[in-house]
Amino acid sequence: MSGYDEIQTAAIIRYPYLWSRETGKGETEGRKDRPVAVGVRIPRADGDLVLFFPITTKQPRPNQFAVEIPAIEKRRTGLDVDLRLWIILDEFNSDIIGRSFYLEPEPPIGRFSKAFFLPILREFLARRKSLAEVNRSR
């Protein structure tokens, strides 16, 4: 099994996330590797499409679609339990496994529980059409 096989829903990997505000300024590369949650992996013949949600220490704005990560989930995923962390869900990066310049075949650093992550993912899917996508596979 390769590291790519482990890039599945609820896994946490390191990825050079590109924020939509950076894309709006003409930037094409993420400024740093950060932990991201794998939202969805969609099988496709030319490479699986994957959606990534950034994890950040920056507290979201009150109207932003984000979820704070509880301590038990930070321990489960190997994230720093001493930091307040949020999953930002009002924007996401999409990429294609096998064609990505940014994905490495390394194992995830952890994985969220289904009980925590699946309700978040359902809410994301309900709002998806109104959210900002940064396509990294171009």
In short:
With 138 residues, the protein is α+β, with helices and mostly antiparallel strands.
Stretches where pLDDT is under 50 for at least 5 consecutive residues are: none
How many E strands? Answer: 8
Overall pLDDT score: 92
Radius of gyration, CA atoms, in whole angstroms: 14 Å
The 3D shape can be described as: globular
What share of residues is helical? 10-25%
Q: Write the H/E string, N to C.
A: EHEEEHEEEHE
Q: Please give the count of helices.
A: 3
- Structural category is alpha+beta
Largest sheet: 8 strands, mixed
The portion of residues forming beta strands comes to: 25-35%
| Ends distance | 27 Å
